[in-house]
UniProtKB/TrEMBL annotation:
Species this protein is from: Clostridium collagenovorans DSM 3089
Entry protein name: Putative ABC transport system ATP-binding protein
Stored InterPro entries: AAA+_ATPase, ABC_transporter-like_ATP-bd, ABC_transporter-like_CS, MacB-like_ATP-bd, P-loop_NTPase
Keyword ATP-binding carried by entry: yes
Family annotation (Pfam families): ABC_tran
Signal peptide: none
Length: 225
């Protein structure tokens, strides 16, 4: 599904070059559950942002199937991301001037009719126990509720790939469990690939593939050892 080849990323900070990712090679297949852990500053978010086509690598290539990503072709990659990749971050990042229902609808691709969009958005919110919150003010949602909206927003276009950067980082343990259970349910029902960056060891253990990022290099934990 995705191949990352010889990928490196440098940032320039005060005349000094910082090499955050070093020659990363990674193949990600369909229907995989991958967790990524590692110390703060190790490059986890940077790697996820590159896979999400939000940041251009300094060197190396990414293939989505046979398509070699051209980071210069912004319009194409924006469309590609919107249609194929679901993104979930530590904070829900909902649009506060819109209702939960509208936050989902605005993230949908343009192919569907408005009526279809509303139906789909409602059924997703129903799935996460937010039937009573379709039209509320998003600022009135609790952190856990807002994050559940963010999770289903990532699903509106039925992506093959869901990328989560510390999806429970801002939640208490009960809400954290609810979000993780939801991600596991999504994975069982939809057969998509999910990558979760986390500092939580228990969540890290859920990965069928467990990756450690240390000083910009990947170390995959061999489950068979
Ligand atoms: N846009 C940027 N400009 C300059 N340096 C950056 C930028 N983004 C990240 N970095 C640097 O790259 C390094 C890796 O950052 P990254 O956010 O990928 O780490 P992380 O593993 O996600 O850490 P955390 O666990 O704290 O989220 C850090 O030293 C950071 O300061
Ligand atoms: Mg990070």
């Amino acid at each position: 599904m995705i191949s990352v080849k010889n990928l490196s990323k440098e940032f320039n900070s005060q005349d000094e070059k910082q090499r955050v990712l070093k020659n990363i090679n990674l193949h990600i297949g369909y229907d995989e559950l991958i967790t990524i852990m590692g110390v703060s500053g190790g490059g986890k978010s940077t790697l996820l942002q590159i896979i999400a086509l939000l940041t251009e690598p300094t060197e190396g290539e990414i293939y989505y199937g046979d398509y070699k990503v051209d980071f210069k072709n912004e319009r194409y990659i924006n469309d590609y991301r919107r249609n194929n990749i679901g993104l979930i971050f530590q904070n829900a990042n909902l649009i506060s001037s819109l209702t939960p229902l509208e936050n989902l609808i605005i993230a949908m691709d343009t192919k569907r009719s408005y009526k279809e969009k509303v139906m789909k958005a409602k059924s997703l919110l129903d799935e996460v126990g937010l039937s009573k919150k379709y039209n509320c003010n998003v600022t009135s949602l609790s952190g856990g509720e807002a994050q559940r909206v963010a999770v289903v927003r990532a699903l509106v276009n039925d992506p093959d790939l869901i990328l989560c950067d510390e999806p429970t980082g801002a939640l208490d343990s009960q809400n954290s469990k609810r979000v993780i259970d939801l991600l596991m349910k999504i994975r069982n029902e939809r057969k998509c690939t999910i990558i979760i960056v986390t500092h939580d060891r228990e969540i890290g253990e859920l990965g069928e593939r467990k990756i450690q990022l240390r000083e910009g290099e990947i170390h995959e934990v061999d489950n068979h050892l």
